Amino acid sequence: MNAKIHRHEFADKLTLADRLARAVAATLDAAVQARGKATLAVSGGSTPKTMFAVLAEQEIDWSKVTVTLVDERWVGADSDRSNARLVADHLLHHEARKATFLPLFDATHADDVDAALADVGARVDALGLPFDVVILGMGGDGHTASFFPGGDHLSEATDPAGRATVASMRADGAGEPRITLTLPRVLDTRALYLHIEGADKKDVLARAEAGEDLPIRSVLTHARVPVDVYWAP
Ligand SMILES: O=C1O[C@H](COP(=O)(O)O)[C@@H](O)[C@H](O)[C@H]1O
After folding, report:
1. Whose CA is nearest to atom 2 of ligand 1?
2. What InterPro entries does the entry give (predicted)?
3. Whole-prediction pTM value?
């Protein structure tokens, strides 16, 4: 395990959401003060909703912030499976309505995620390196981003020396095809948060730290900045 892990544990999910949102907002604010702009890559799924709601209310200069996704299900933004829809419904409101959002789904290639990789990767690259903040989630199977166990492009996507910005992913546990930032791109960030909830996920993370070959381990092994793990039961 090469990365330093900073653990932040809370008694309940509401407190976690509040503290994580404030930490992220402070980091974005510092980036805007220092460089005049900030980039934030967020995960989807069910875990971030409350944290997004708190983050949306933080009084920073959101007009200077670009938000994108760590990964996306290859579905349109009208689907309730869409991570872009999650962000639109829960984050891009209140103060955060002024942020710019860069989606990963490309409707011009709605039937073929692989055909979209070059264009989507170029759009992400245009944000510049590194991200200011990346927030990862983790599934009960140890996937993070769309690095799914058994995924058809798992080794390519988690190659720490890989050159691609995005990869496609199909896996039994993934539902529809996915697009994901690759491991080098996820780790090219000034601040890296892992947001997990529940005893089961805490146990999965502990197993990965102990050496079990789960996709989240690739992050713990190769991260160049501390991984701030935010957890509540
Ligand atoms: O499918 C996904 O799952 C993970 C975890 O989601 P959760 O519902 O267990 O919180 C998420 O981090 C990822 O972005 C998402 O696409």
Report:
1. 45
2. 6-phosphogluconolactonase_DevB, 6PGL, Glc/Gal-6P_isomerase, NagB/RpiA_transferase-like
3. 0.98
